[in-house]
Specification:
It is a single chain. The protein has about 500 residues and is of the alpha/beta class. The protein folds into 2 domains: about 350 residues, 4-Layer Sandwich (Metallo-beta-lactamase, Chain A); about 130 residues, Serine Threonine Protein Phosphatase 5, Tetratricopeptide repeat. Strand 6, helix 6 and strand 7 form a beta-alpha-beta unit. The longest helix is centred in the middle third of the chain and has 27 residues. Bound molecules: zinc ion. The site of zinc ion has 8 residues, from helix 4.
């Protein structure tokens, strides 16, 4: 039994009893699944063909070397010069030919920030799509919150005993020099298909908008190797990132991956995770990946047209039977339900179509009504604690969010319960961004680094939501270093994006 088949079987068995589209299982299973996924980014140089080598696990993403007659071509350059130099050192044990070209599959920082390490004295061409850099997705004005939410999604501040991985990347990457080795493209491609020869190697670059609009895939027609960038990796794709992203055009994404499948590659080198070898395996993976994205889009659109809101669609949506157990479609990184919410918002905006939600009650007023229904604040508190005892962690969390608005609530108890509920949910999660976010948020609440709400004293009319801002969010562990790094680096806004 080969490793791949065994893994497929394991995943199938472990998640066979998941009844809804969520990613919560028992804690032991969640850890087993995440540890199994870790095999996708163990540090190693993988020989893909006689002349193609991929460095996996040197940072979050992959970097590859194509060896030609009188030089080498590098596809993607990792996040910073330290990890890139480390990968180059390994590549140099295979070939000492000069670097003739660097190709960026897209502009995210984990693929571009280490370029300077590969350049040396060689002065290579740096090639990317003409619209390179168009895909940052969010406004610079949002940098403060993006740093915090990104850190939570990736679990950057988690202590070793809480860290697992990032779904398609290891947790222990070297990040202090993020973006410091970035070099802008010297050659940009303004056609859909660009065919060239570099160092005697025939290379085709195909525009493939998806995760970003500026994405391309690299095709080696002779070796039948396809470098997909981040439009394919071995996990259900991050059609929406919980750190906060603008709408990613998932239909274009599906189409681009379908186009890759039409090449029937013999070797598929993803932007993250291990390469897939074999024409049947690689083609089928691309084709099913494309189908999965399209299915999520189509199911969401169908739900929208039936008048359903995003909550209902998110709870009902599932991958079709023939796709859900494929190891490269398990929701280690992206989430099917989150994707449906993003598609809803991307196509129609925030409003779910139900007039009840046009002007919802102020959360404090709703909390007061809920407390009255429960028979008072102390009874509502008991309901929250009972939910914890019963393992209804999500319900406990929702009740804690009501209770924190109530002046007569035991706020310390409510806060402690929220922290425990978040950690309980994290333990059951095999979706890495969710797990990392729950844990990071709980740690911030516990340390006092994050104060969700300051309840005003009696008599004052308004309770104020204290959102994390520079003023009430002390810049200490784990963010100080990141904010320094970001503020001193104009490339920072792209430097944490997968
Ligand atoms: Zn990436």
């Amino acid at each position: 039994m080969n490793v791949r088949f065994k893994w497929t079987l394991l995943v199938g068995l472990l998640i066979a009893d998941i009844s809804s589209a969520d990613t919560q299982v028992d804690p032991e299973t969640a850890l087993k699944l995440l540890r199994g996924q870790g095999a996708q980014f163990e540090k190693q140089v993988v020989q893909v063909t006689d002349n193609v080598f991929t460095a996996v696990g040197f940072h979050g993403a992959n970097t590859s070397m194509i060896v030609g007659d009188d030089g080498v071509i590098i596809v993607d350059t990792l996040m910073g010069p330290t990890s890139a130099s480390d990968a180059l050192k390994s590549f140099r044990q295979i070939s000492d030919k000069p670097v003739k070209a660097i190709i960026y599959t897209h502009s995210h920082g984990d693929h571009t920030g280490g370029a300077s390490a590969f350049v040396g004295e060689d002065n290579p061409a740096i090639i990317a799509m003409q619209n390179f850099g168009s895909a940052h997705g969010v406004d610079d004005a949002l940098t403060p919150i993006m740093i915090r939410r990104g850190a939570r999604q990736f679990g950057r501040g988690l202590p070793p005993d809480q860290a697992t991985n990032r779904g398609v990347a290891r947790a222990d990457t070297v990040d202090h020099d993020r973006g410091r080795g970035y070099l802008p493209p010297t050659t940009t491609v303004d056609v859909d298909v660009y065919k060239t020869e570099i160092a005697g190697v025939s290379i085709e670059l195909h525009s493939s908008p998806g995760e970003t609009d500026d994405a391309l895939f690299v095709w080696l027609p002779q070796e039948k190797v396809l470098f997909s960038g981040d439009n394919f990796y071995q996990s259900f794709p991050n059609l929406y990132a919980i750190r906060g992203t603008a709408y990613r055009d998932v239909l274009k994404w599906s189409t681009s991956v379908g186009k890759m499948a039409s090449f029937e590659p013999v070797h598929l080198v993803p932007g993250h995770t291990m390469p897939i070898n074999g024409q049947q395996e690689a083609t089928s993976a691309l084709s099913k990946f494309s189908d999965a994205i399209r299915s999520v889009y189509e199911q969401t659109v169908q739900g929208i047209n039936e008048g359903k809101g995003p909550d209902l669609i998110a709870h009902e949506i599932e991958l079709p039977e023939h796709l859900k157990d494929e190891p490269y479609l398990v929701e280690f990184y992206g989430s099917v339900s989150h994707a449906s919410r993003a598609i809803f918002a991307g196509l129609l905006g925030w409003y779910d179509g139900n007039p009840t939600t046009l002007n919802r009650l102020h959360p404090r007023d709703e909390a007061q009504h809920v407390a009255r229904l429960a028979g008072g604040t102390s009874k509502l508190t008991k309901k929250m604690l009972r939910a914890m005892d019963d393992g209804e962690l999500q319900w406990a969390l929702q009740l804690s969010d009501h209770l924190r608005w109530l002046e007569d609530a035991d706020r310390r108890l409510v806060l402690d319960t929220k922290i425990r509920a978040l950690r309980g949910l994290a333990a059951r999660e095999y979706n890495a961004p969710n797990r990392n976010y729950y844990l990071s948020y709980a740690n911030e609440l516990e340390s006092g680094q994050l104060q969700e709400f300051e309840i005003q004293t009696k008599g004052e009319k308004q309770a104020s939501a204290v959102l994390p801002s520079a003023a009430n969010f002390p810049l200490q562990f784990p963010y100080r270093e990141q904010i320094d790094s970001v503020l001193s680096d104009s490339l920072s806004k792209s430097s944490q994006l997968y």
